[in-house]
Amino acid sequence: MTPAQQSKARPGAVIPRATYRLQLNQGFTLRDAADAVPYLAELGVSHVYCSPYLRARPGSTHGYDVIDHNALNPEIGSCGDFERFVQTLRSHGMGQILDMVPNHVGVMGADNAWWLDLLENGQASAYADFFDIDWQPADASFAGKVLVPVLGSQYGVALEGGELRLALDAQQGSVSLWYHAHRFPIDPREYPRILDPALRLVSPEALAQGAHAELEGLSRDFGHLPPRDAASAEERVERDRNARAHKRRLAALLQAHAPLAAAVDAALAALNGVPGTPGSFDGLHELIERQAYRLAYWRVASDEINYRRFFDINDLAALRMENEAVFDATHRLVVQLLAEGKADGLRIDHPDGLYDPPEYFRRLQQRYAAALGTGTAGMAAPGSADAAGGGGRDWPLYLVIEKIAAGHERVPESWQVYGTTGYRFANVVNGLFVDGAARSRLERTWRAFTGLPASWEDTVYQCKVLIMRTALASELTVLSNQLLRIARADRRTRDFTFNTLRQALIEVVAWLPVYRTYLTQPPSASDRRYVEWAVARAKRSSLAADSSLLDFLRGVLLGEAPAGAAPALREAMRSFAGKLQQFTAPVTAKGVEDTAFYRHLPLASVNEVGGDPHRMGTSVRTFHGASRDRAAKWPHTLLATTTHDTKRAEDVRLRIDVLSEMPGAWRLALKRWSRLNRRHKRTVSGEQAPSRADEYLLYQTLVGSYPPGDLDAAVLAEYRARIEAYMLKAVREAKRHSSWINPNPAYEEALQAFVGALLTRRDSNLFLDDFAGGVRHIAWLGMLNGLSQVLIKLTSPGVPDIYQGTELWDLSLVDPDNRRPVDYAHRRRLLDEIRSRAGGGPERLSNMLERMLANLEDGRMKLYLTWRTLSLRREHEDLFRRGRYLPLEAAGQHASHLCAFARQHEDLALITMAPRLLAGLCKGPGVLPVGEPVWGDTGVDASALPGDVYQNLLDGSTVRIEAHAGARLLRVRDALARFPLGLLWRRAR
User: Fold this and answer.
1) What is d(CA 61, CA 74) in angstroms, rounded to the nearest whole number?
2) Residue 749: count of CB within 10 angstroms of its CB
3) At what angle do helices 233-256 and 211-223 cross, to 10 degrees?
4) What count of other Cβ atoms lies within 10 Å of the Cβ of residue 223?
5) Per-residue DSSP letters for 79-140?
6) Cα(241)–Cα(485) distance, rounded to whole angstroms?
7) Is 486 helix (H, G, I), strand (E, B) or coil?
8) Radius of gyration, CA atoms only, the chain
9) Average pLDDT over the chain, rounded to an integer
10) Are 424 and 618 in contact (CB under 8 A)?
11) What is the pLDDT at residue 387?
């Protein structure tokens, strides 16, 4: 039975067994995805999990700039291609998870019908409430307008340079202003400014009878349309209906009477002006000023933009998803695909951008249940014992959310979701391979090398403040004005000024310890704690500030209105708190992920989405605690190790992790490499370029990503280009010496030249020879880390997610590097070979494993491990879906170097044994963590497990649990006698 059939055959969500992320674009379409399905099915994946494929901006490489939520993206495939993809999945017993983007849509350009209607009609548009716009901004000169920061130069320069041009669409009877590929419709009420001059250019005698008078009357009708600020809904409907009718009449007139069309074109040409004659643009300027938009230089956005964006991206406008009409308009097709069984679940992108995420999840489950005709009355309540989905939830739709939670934060169990997209797991499991004891030494090395004294906490604060003062300054201004109106409503707070309130907001948001709160009335205990902590921290860091301001802000956020406050004031406070929550998430994302992570780099591998670089390393005990909690509360959450948003692929991180095990050698290597390469630096603005911090990041990046083997000139050149592109992005994200908004060409050229000098093979390049030789052992240990991580992920509680291509070694960096094409033909050949040899008897399996261990660099061992473990998940789904999680405590000489746990369900038991922190165990390249010479007396307490004899499913060996000192001991030297990993299996007879 396929997952889709399953969803029809029984109530409750279809829980994936394992997902595989595919990045769809023009170069990898739905046809390509369908072709990859047989391979993925053989690998053991149950669900393909695609990047968004609803209609996006032409040329989109990621699909998140959706322009139509109710159509497929034609660049990715046709409806026929989609149906073939669905049928191919079904024929292989698979399903798919959709990636949904509810928070925003792509705007600008000329292809988003909602946005174009908004520009044409302003507040009278049927879509005015779809977008989150402040129609009464602080600058009263453009009240009722939306700022459109799209121009490449100052408005007046662009205007008088002839870059803004009016054009007639005779087929539609409409006039638009164009700026290159961007279209800005003209308010139909202003058409007389075009049609009346056109009438003066053609005599009635030159036209067929009545045509001149008809156009004259039509011009009057356009002018009598209700205004954009029409107060009543009836007037807005009348405006829309009549404007459409008038345009149809105009189109018919122009097509029937060529002289009229020529006259309109001539009138437009006169308005368009003549470059070099400034006065010729006066008429066009006056017309533009009367529109529902104000065109502006793109740099104006950070100060004056009055529509909420996705982060600071001007051409991604946020939607008011709390508006039920917006929800239904954007989810119609998705709910239909789910109800038809063509998809089994949803991944929700950036839910923290929504006004009320919990309500959004509830509404989504409700709409899906309604589409199925099942209703929600029978759903088990969270935490109830009869919830079939596990973890106390039985929502009808498998729904996971891209929620970035702080280490101390807990996703509310009341949310109608099955979990998150796995960033917490990625950080926890990566931490197993970081030696936390080295944190202070690594931080000292970082400070000594770079001269940067700031702590991680201070860096985050500084970066969040920077983002609020620059990229998101306009959003901060909107909130400050809203807060000022609240303050002015009470005589006890009316003396608070705009500037002081704005500064109070900056301080509290900068110290907020989570991406956002989810304030209700009354606030939850956790949200109250976060707000009060941020306010207290703001008071300590700003001793000169008026603490009453911060107390006022605290009261507003927590809904503590003054005694006798009017309902309107209470509603204003509630609205402000909701809007502020939509602001804090992008501030944190931009401030931490896209700035601080590129500034504070003692160990770059822990600078990951959802991570905390100050907390290096995960103890085995902590890992077990997290796993038991997940098994109990979120058993179907995704387990990710690489995503399209991670800063480095998992195998890059695991290599860099090794540096934590050799901090002394790393410090010496830095000194040596810096000395060898200082002659390649340049002086830019009186300082060495690249900076010491950027140089430090570069060396870590090379350690993590340098390709294995001896590189020929072509491979080295390709790698050099990738590193140059990565470092350019890194320095712009760091915003110290260059940035996206203010690039520093001299610094960037010096950086590129430095990278080129390091990665060009020549007789005098002592660095490259030294580096390539020294990184081999680190790469070897990184690969062993990678095998352990794969085994842990694929056997832990949750749904393992594999990012495209990472079933082999993947040394990709941050996007767009991680969107490079994946060679599935190569992977299919390798898997076919592995399956054939693994099924050919013990001797062939042993020979194959021996060869793969001797040639770890080719990635076949990672592929074998993935296939073998996913196959086990397919054969015994209940063990992994419902099985208990049992931590296994290690003891003995090298106990700290092993992570071991068991899964048990009914008569099934499985033990995972994964080595970690191997630099002290594997003394040189090629040395495996196997046998007694490595493990000595190390053993695992197996007293809680049934039976005595287990089989290692990875190499076919048998191992026995021994009685020892009143307990039952599994000796690691026996379990890992020949193979470096243990997947020990027992089934009672």
Assistant:
1) 13
2) 13
3) 160
4) 15
5) HHHHHHHHHHHHHTT-EEEEEE--SEEE-STT--HHHHHHHHHGGGSTTTTTB-B-SS-SSG
6) 37
7) helix
8) 31
9) 93
10) no
11) 38
Looking at residue 895, its amino acid is: A
> CA-based angle 201:207:212, to the nearest 5?
65
The secondary element (H helix, E strand) that includes residue 184 is strand 182-185
Answer for the pair 185, 293: CB distance below 8 angstroms, yes or no. Answer: no
Question: Given the structure tokens 């649990």, which residue do they identify?
Answer: 961
Using CA atoms of 576, 577, 583, 588 in order, give the dihedral in degrees to the nearest 10: 160
Rounded-to-integer distance, Cα 448 and Cα 436, Å: 20
Model pLDDT, residue 989: 58
Token pair 């996007």 is found at 815
Angle formed at CA 838 by CA 835 and CA 840, multiple of 5 degrees? 110
Give the number of other Cβ atoms within 10 Å of residue 392's Cβ. Answer: 18
Token couple for 403? 């929620």
Q: Which residue has the tokens 């000139």?
A: 713
Dihedral through CA 819, CA 821, CA 826, CA 828, nearest 10?
70
The model's pTM is: 0.94
- The burial of 836, by beta-carbon neighbours within 10 Å (0-12 exposed, 13-18 middle, 19 or more buried), is given as exposed
Tokens 């998809």 found at: 343
Structure tokens at 314: 């001007």
At 797, the pLDDT band (50, 70, 90 cuts) reads: very high
Six-digit token string for 488: 């002015």
User: Which tens digit of pLDDT belongs to each residue from 338-390?
Assistant: 999 999 999 999 999 999 999 999 999 999 999 998 765 445 444 333 333 44
Q: Could you tell me which of 39, 34, 17, 123 has the C-alpha nearest to residue 86?
A: 34
Q: What span, in angstroms and rounded, lies between the C-alpha atoms of 260 and 195?
A: 10
What gap in Å lies between CA 6 and CA 388, rounded to an integer? 14
Side-chain-facing half-sphere of 941: CA atoms under 13 Å = 13
Residue 353 one-letter amino acid: G
Q: Is the peptide bond before 522 cis (omega within 30 degrees of 0)?
A: yes
Q: Give the phi and the psi of residue 682 in degrees, each rounded to 5.
A: -120, 165
